[in-house]
Fold this protein.
Amino acid sequence: MREEMEVNRRFWEEAVDVHMRSEFYDVDGFRAGRSTLGAIVRSELGDVSGRHVLHLMCHFGMDSLSLARQGAIVTGLDYSAAAIAAARQLSQEIGVPARFVEANVYDARTAITDRFDLVFTSIGVLSWLPDLGEWARIIADFLKPGGRFYIAETHPAIRWFDDRPESADAPLTAFYPYRDDGRPEFYDEPGSYTDGGKEIVNTQEYSWRHGLGEIVTSLATAGLRIDFLHEHPVCYWQALPALVQDDDGYWRTGPNHPELPLTFSLSAHR
Ligand SMILES: C[S@@+](CC[C@H](N)C(=O)[O-])C[C@H]1O[C@@H](n2cnc3c(N)ncnc32)[C@H](O)[C@@H]1O
C-alpha cells in the first residue's frame, strides 16, 4: 500500500499551507496560547509534565506543542516534509521546544530509536493507515514497559451515515459500509475538510475504514492492555450535516436526531 500512501502524502504536502491559513485550525489563537487538545483529551490524559511523548501523525505540530506547553518532552512524527517544516517553525515562533521527525509511521522504528512514556495520536489519523496490526506493534515497540498509549479519534460509526443531505434535519441513514475488506476507497475531490483548499492540485486520496473492533483487537494483539474505551456524543468537526456546533466548540447531533457516538478515546498500557 506504499503507492496509495504516497498519493495521500502528496495531498498533505499541499494541505499544510492551506490549513495553516484556515479558520478551522486558528493558528493565531494557538500562537496566543490556545490548547488544541480539547477538554476531553486534557482531562483523560492528566498530567503530562516531564513525560517523554511520541506524537504520531502530528501534522504541523499544534497538538504536539500543546502537550509541550503542558511540560511534556515531545517528539512529533509526520511523513509530510511541509508539515514538519511548519511544526519546527511554529515551535521556534512560540518558543516551545519539541523535536519533529519526517517519516512514515510504518518506518518510524528506523527514524526514531528512543522509547517513550506516552505514545499519543488524535483526530483524523486512522483512515490514512492501511494496516492497523503493524501500527499497533509499532506503538507497543515505542513504549517503555508500563508506558501508555492514548488515542482520541472520530468514531468509525460516523462513516456509516449518508453525509450528502443538504438539510441538517434529514433522517440519518446508514449508507456506506462500516468497514472495508482491506482495499482502500479512492476519492478525487477538490478542497480539504477545512474552510479552503480549492487551490490544492493533488486532490487524490485513498482512505481505509477500520471498525472499532479492529482498532481495539489490533492493540490487544500487540500486547497492550486496554484501560478504557470511551465513546463520546461530541465531534471535533462537522462530520455529518446533522451535527450542530455548541458554545463549547464541539459538534453534536441536533434536537431532531438521536445521540450518536461521534468520538472515541482509548487508553492502554504496555
Ligand atoms: C488530519 S492530520 C492530523 C491530525 C491532527 N490531529 C491535526 O488535526 O492536526 C493527518 C496527518 O497525518 C499525516 N499522515 C498521514 N498518513 C501518514 C503516514 N502513513 N505516516 C506519517 N504521517 C501520516 C499527514 O501528513 C497529516 O499531517
Remarks:
- The longest helix spans residues 2-20.
- The pocket of S-adenosylmethionine is lined by residues 5, 8, 12, 57, 59, 62-63, 78-80, 83, 104-105, 122-125, 128 (CB under 6 Å).
- The helical segments are 2-20, 27-31, 38-45, 62-69, 81-94, 108-111, 132-142, 212-221.
- The longest strand covers residues 143-154.
